Every structure is written in structure tokens, then in C-alpha cells.
């Protein structure tokens, strides 16, 4: 016997969008996408003209931003689309998690390119071509302004949605890149040594790689169906076991479908004469209010089922 609270997972309609973290912040992603995409072209052209690896590396990372933000926008649309096939019983919410995974791959790719190029320049014993510091400083400052605006737009959603967080971290890394470009330009002007361009580019690449690994761990935790962050499964089992009428809890599983959407299943063994309907209701309320697990499928049993004991995994 199970109980739910509205089992439609198609994600379509107003209700789906309203309850979906990524969809609530879609307009922020759209505005940030427009800003970043427009400035990327400017930075790439100036980087090629000036010969600055730091500027080109930052433009490459901004290109990753464009792809990531675009994928995030598409993912929020797909995640709230109604399922017309009848095969996606959880809807398409995980499209956002895959978009976050794409953000990780893009960040790692850009970081690898920048680090390899920087090491190559150092290995050749030079700092590369002559660098025009004027364009570096101007574009670095403009990039900083654009990125700060995008950060302010995405910051609110980064706490609610893994998808938005991926885009937010991309922009955080790009903001650091803009600061790095300006720092490289100033150091070259002060010292007259173009090696600072290579050094700063290397640091930007390393910073981006670290942020990518951190986000990648979160993505893998969701795809691996780990227990939701901040939830202790033993505590959940103990709380369910304390519900009046429950004598045992087994086959308890909890995982994250997508950001802000936690799911759980459990079998509750009842004492003789217990109110099964009341136990189900209390279990749902407990999981929702104490552990923020809104969708829980609970099964009550008069005694521990032999079928459960026969499961080999």
C-alpha cells in the first residue's frame, strides 16, 4: 500500500514551472546569456589582435560560459516540458543535471587548453608575442563589469538549482579571469616583462579547473543517486521508526532527482492493530517537513515480508 501527494511528473503546466527551481530563475539565465554572448566576441577579437594569452584564455572561458548558459536555458525548458511518451515517469527534470555536467566538461576543457599553452610558452623560454597592454586593460575592465552584472543576476538562483549554480560558477571563474587580465596588464606595464601574461593565464586555468572539480562532484552525487546533501539516512530511519505504530523500517532509499527535488522510498512494518493509513500520513508529513523530502513512496507491512528478504541486491 502506498500513498502520494500528486504523482504527476510530467513537469508541464504552471504548477511544474512554479515548483521547479531552475524554471523560476530562467529569466536570469536569459539575461546573463545575452550579456556574456555579446561580450565574448569583443574579447576574442581584441585578444587575437593584442596577442595576450590571458585575454584569449578568458575569451575561451567566456565561450564556455556562452555554451553553458545556453545549455542551462534549454535544460530549464526541457525540464518543465510535459512527457508525451509515457516512458519518463519522473519527467525530464534531470536535463538540468546533464547541463551542469556539460558545464564541468567545458570548464575542464578550457582550463586544460590554457594550462598547456602557458606551460608551452614557459618551456620555450619566452613569454610569447609582444603584448599590447592598453587593449588588455580596457577589455579586462569591461569584462569585469559584464561578469559582475551576470553574477548578481545568477547569485539568487545558485542556491536553489544545480543548473543555475553551474552557470554561476562559470561566471565566477570568468570574473576571476577578468581580474587576472587586468592584473597581467598592470604587471606588464610596471615590469616591462610579458611573462606575467603567461603566469596569470596559468593561474586562471588552475582556478577554473578547481571550480570544475567541485561542481563535478555534486553532479556525480546526483547521478549516482547519493543521499541528498544534508540528509543523514540513519537519522531518517530512526525518525520513521519513532512514528506511532511502526516497529521496523527497512528498504529505505533517498536520492535527489534534481535541485530541490528529493525522493525517498521505504517499507514500514506495523505493530499489530496499528492504523496503516495514519502511519502513511505521518510518514509523509515527517519526511516533507523535517527532511524536505516532498515525494516519498511508503509501503506498510503487517510483518516483514519474505519477498523483501528474498531480494538479492
Automatic annotation (TrEMBL):
Membrane topology of the entry: Multi-pass membrane protein
InterPro entries: Cation_efflux, Cation_efflux_CTD, Cation_efflux_CTD_sf, Cation_efflux_TM, Cation_efflux_TMD_sf, CDF/SLC30A
Domain Cation efflux protein transmembrane: 30-223
Domain Cation efflux protein cytoplasmic: start-end pairs: 229-301
Similarity comment text for this entry: Belongs to the cation diffusion facilitator (CDF) transporter (TC 2.A.4) family. SLC30A subfamily.
Species annotation: Nocardioides humi
Location(s), subcellular: Membrane
UniProt keyword list: Ion transport, Membrane, Transmembrane, Transmembrane helix, Transport
Pfam families xref list: Cation_efflux, ZT_dimer
The name this protein goes by in its record: Cation diffusion facilitator family transporter
Segments passing through the bilayer: 29-53, 59-76, 97-116, 136-154, 166-189, 195-214
Gene3D superfamilies, per the entry: Cation efflux protein transmembrane domain (1.20.1510.10)
Amino acid at each position: 500500500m502506498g500513498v502520494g501527494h500528486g504523482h504527476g511528473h510530467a513537469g508541464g503546466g504552471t504548477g511544474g514551472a512554479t515548483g521547479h527551481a531552475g524554471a523560476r530563475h530562467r529569466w536570469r539565465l536569459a539575461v546573463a546569456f545575452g550579456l556574456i554572448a555579446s561580450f565574448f566576441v569583443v574579447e576574442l577579437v581584441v585578444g587575437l589582435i593584442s596577442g595576450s594569452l590571458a585575454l584569449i584564455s578568458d575569451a575561451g572561458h567566456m565561450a564556455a560560459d556562452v555554451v553553458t548558459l545556453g545549455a542551462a536555458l534549454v535544460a530549464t525548458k526541457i525540464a518543465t516540458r510535459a512527457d508525451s511518451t509515457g516512458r519518463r515517469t519522473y519527467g525530464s527534470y534531470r536535463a538540468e543535471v546533464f547541463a551542469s555536467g556539460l558545464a564541468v566538461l567545458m570548464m575542464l576543457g578550457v582550463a586544460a587548453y590554457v594550462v598547456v599553452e602557458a606551460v608551452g610558452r614557459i618551456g620555450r623560454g619566452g613569454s610569447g608575442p609582444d603584448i599590447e597592454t592598453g587593449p588588455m586593460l580596457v577589455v579586462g575592465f569591461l569584462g569585469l563589469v559584464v561578469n559582475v552584472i551576470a553574477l548578481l543576476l545568477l547569485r539568487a538562483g545558485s542556491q536553489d538549482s544545480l543548473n543555475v549554480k553551474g552557470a554561476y560558477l562559470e561566471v565566477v571563474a570568468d570574473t576571476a579571469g577578468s581580474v587576472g587580465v587586468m592584473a597581467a596588464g598592470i604587471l606588464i606595464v610596471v615590469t616591462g616583462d610579458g611573462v606575467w601574461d603567461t603566469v596569470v593565464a596559468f593561474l586562471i586555468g588552475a582556478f577554473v579547473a578547481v571550480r570544475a572539480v567541485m561542481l563535478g562532484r555534486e553532479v556525480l552525487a546526483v547521478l549516482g543517486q547519493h543521499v541528498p546533501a544534508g540528509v543523514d539516512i540513519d537519522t531518517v530511519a530512526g525518525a520513521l521508526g519513532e512514528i506511532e505504530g511502526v516497529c521496523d523500517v527497512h528498504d529505505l532509499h533517498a536520492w535527489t532527482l534534481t535541485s530541490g527535488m528529493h525522493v525517498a522510498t521505504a517499507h514500514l512494518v506495523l505493530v499489530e492493530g496499528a492504523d496503516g493509513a495514519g502511519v502513511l500520513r505521518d510518514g509523509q508529513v515527517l519526511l516533507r517537513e523535517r527532511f524536505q523530502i516532498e515525494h516519498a513512496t511508503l509501503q506498510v507491512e503487517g510483518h516483514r515480508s519474505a519477498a523483501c528478504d528474498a531480494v538479492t541486491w
